[in-house]
Design goal:
Helix content is 39%, strand content 20%. The chain is of the alpha/beta class. The strands form 2 sheets. It has a 6-stranded mixed β-sheet with strand order 2-1-3-5-6-4. The longest helix is centred in the last third of the chain and has 17 residues, at 249-265.
């Protein structure tokens, strides 16, 4: 489909942004459904964020994904945010409806969908979540109502404890927090069904690293790593080696992107098309570091 004066523009803002796979994911879906949309990546520095959001209104840009470091600051420039974004104090998706900017968070949705589509039975799961930062908070919020038990481990104990208190105040569920250490990993993984790495440990820049010693992994675990570059982190390779079920970060990336796509277009996202497009790009040129 050609670009015309009627073409709707969506995009992603962040800094850095050259590594993003979002244009591949979203444009493949637009083409497949023959939608008159285009998706672009915009490098936006922190000092330029307010001006950039004003430009969304002025130029009639239909929607944005928001990535680091803008997810928290951006909510100051929106007209409304959904209850998830309010709890997280951040948004990763913006929808422009007649110059009214609405903020949403799809990170947690992406994780839940990735787990469910890979056959994980959440209702009976005891979960260990590594990380209490932006992604960790979003995933914890989506998990807490769906799992039997949630343990949050984070190097900064105060951050993990705050997340525990926030979740327990809101949901009164079985949530606890501990400092991330070999002892806490050993004690909690012993009775767990699901391990989620929501930190950046294992990314291409430190791909030989894993938070979890391989001898703590067992075949009864399912392991989700939100890192997608590389596709198989050391944590996932170690888990696969012992016979555990593994889920890489591409699935979460696709499902959170699909949720944004549906908010912008009102159409059901073609998941297989989006996933095939991004896997093809990675196999051809890799992921930009």
């Amino acid at each position: 489909m050609g670009i015309s004066g009627k073409t709707k523009i969506c995009g992603v803002i962040g800094d850095p942004i050259a590594h993003t796979l979002s244009p591949t994911i979203q444009n493949s879906a637009f083409r497949h459904l023959n939608l008159d949309f285009i998706f672009l990546a915009f490098k936006v520095k922190t000092a330029e964020l307010e001006t950039s959001i004003k430009a969304v209104r002025a130029l009639g840009i239909r929607g944005l994904n928001v990535t680091m470091p803008h997810k928290t600051e951006v909510i100051n420039y929106l007209d409304e945010i959904d209850k998830t974004s309010r709890f997280l104090n951040s948004a990763n998706t913006i929808v422009n409806t007649e110059s009214k900017l609405l903020g949403y968070s799809t990170d947690g949705i992406g994780a839940i969908k990735a787990l469910m589509e890979n056959g994980v039975e959440l209702a009976s799961s005891n979960v260990v979540l590594l990380g209490a930062g932006g992604a960790g908070r979003a995933i914890a919020l989506s998990l807490v109502e769906n799992v039997s038990k949630l343990v949050i481990l984070n190097r900064d104990y105060k951050k993990a404890k705050k997340l525990e208190l926030d979740l327990n105040l809101k949901f009164k569920k079985n949530v606890s927090a501990e400092s991330l250490s070999t002892d806490s990993l050993t004690n909690n993984l012993r009775d767990s069904d699901l391990l989620i790495n929501a930190t950046n440990v294992g990314m291409i820049s430190n791909k030989k690293l894993s938070i979890v010693d391989s001898n703590l992994l067992t075949p009864n675990l399912t392991v989700l790593d939100i890192v997608y570059n590389p596709l198989e982190t050391k944590l996932l390779a170690d888990a696969r080696e012992v016979g555990a079920k593994t889920i890489n970060g591409i699935d979460m990336l696709i499902y959170q992107g699909a949720a944004s796509f549906e908010l912008w277009t009102g159409k059901k996202a073609p998941i297989d098309v989006m996933k095939n497009a991004v896997l093809k790009q990675i196999s051809n040129v890799g992921v930009v570091n």
